[in-house]
Specification:
Elements lengths: L2 H12 L2 H7 L4 H15 L4 E3 L4 E3 L1 H26 L6 E8 H6 L1 H11 L3 E8 L1 H9 L5 E5 L8 E14 L20 E5 L4 H13 L5 E5 L2 H9 L5 E4 L4 H5 L4 E2 L7 E9 L6 H10 L2 H5 L4
Parallel strand pairs: 3-4, 3-5, 7-8
Antiparallel strand pairs: 1-2, 5-11, 6-9, 6-10, 6-11
Length: about 300
């Protein structure tokens, strides 16, 4: 990759000329020369700096954003060429939405490393919208999402079905063996994920399909915090069965699905490149091994 761009990205991320100089075993004047040369090529200043701080200006933010994409593509090119020598190694940037990323992906990473011990997986967890955005910008090799994304990708494939269940605390007025009607679901507070989340999308589809109007909502940014809030008796929530195995096993949560509601959704993976390393190819094959997920149940 272009050395001037590499030094610029480091200065932008470290907010420091001195730390960049230490990282690349250079003098600070040499770092300054690289930045000045890049600014001359671009035709404008990219950094605002004084004795106390270094920060990107508007032009610098643009160069940094596209520079990260260039760096990702350059690294991908190197490892794809290296794959031609049959070395299944190198980095793989994996993104996943919260449910899959927190409850299924760790086991898949362990499987990946057992097959490709020289691979270097880096994992990013975010909501469905965030992961789709990162794949679209070539900052991730593959993204795993729940729900729908309006973005178009070279590869977008469903690979695993997910069961959604309505959960409550054991102290919920209805007992486990009782049934709850769809109409009753609107009488309670619902604990929801943030906008952009696949789980939030599934909840909204439930309300729309069965004409449920909840009494009130509370919004949380993670499944873990929702589970804790449900356990505390704050309300009901719609969660993936993958996410509540331990809580069901130890009686911390119960399910209260009405008999006439069956909720399913699918996980999909996204790619935005025609080319893939052997490690990425192997990881994709793991995703599609349906019997592998049976071993993840407690």
């Amino acid at each position: 990759m272009d050395s001037q761009l590499k030094i610029f990205l480091s200065v932008a991320e470290n907010k420091s000329f001195s730390r960049t100089a230490e990282k690349y075993y250079m003098s600070q004047p040499a770092v300054s020369q690289h930045i000045q040369a890049l600014e001359e090529r671009i035709g404008t200043k990219l950094l605002d700096r004084n004795n106390k701080f270094v920060k990107l200006n508007k032009a610098g933010e643009i160069v940094y954003h596209y520079g990260k994409e260039i760096a990702a593509l350059y690294n991908k090119m190197e490892y794809l060429v290296d794959d031609l020598t049959n070395n299944a190694s190198g980095p793989i940037n994996i993104g996943a939405s919260y449910t899959f990323g927190e409850y299924l992906l760790p086991n898949l990473i362990a499987e990946l490393l057992s097959l490709y011990p020289y691979s270097q997986p880096a994992v990013t967890i975010g909501n469905t919208e965030e992961i789709a955005h990162l794949v679209n910008n070539s900052q991730l090799d593959i993204g795993i999402i729940e729900g729908y994304t309006p973005k178009k990708f070279l590869v977008q494939k469903e690979f695993l079905e997910d069961s959604m269940v309505i959960v409550a605390s054991p102290g919920f007025p209805l007992k486990r063996e009782d049934s709850i009607s769809v109409k009753e679901l609107g009488k309670y507070t619902w604990l929801m994920r943030e906008n952009g989340s696949g789980t939030r999308e599934a909840s909204e589809k439930l309300f729309e399909e069965f004409k449920i109007v909840p009494q009130s909502f509370l919004t949380f940014s993670s499944t873990q915090s929702i589970k804790a809030a449900v356990e505390a008796g704050l309300g009901l929530s719609l969660l993936s069965r993958w996410a509540i195995q331990k809580e069901l096993k130890y009686g911390d949560l119960i399910t209260v699905n009405p008999a006439d509601i069956s909720l399913k959704r699918t996980f999909s993976y996204l790619k935005n490149s025609h080319y893939q390393s052997k490690v990425l190819e192997g990881f994709t094959e793991l995703l599609e091994q349906k019997n592998l997920y049976d071993t993840f149940y407690i």
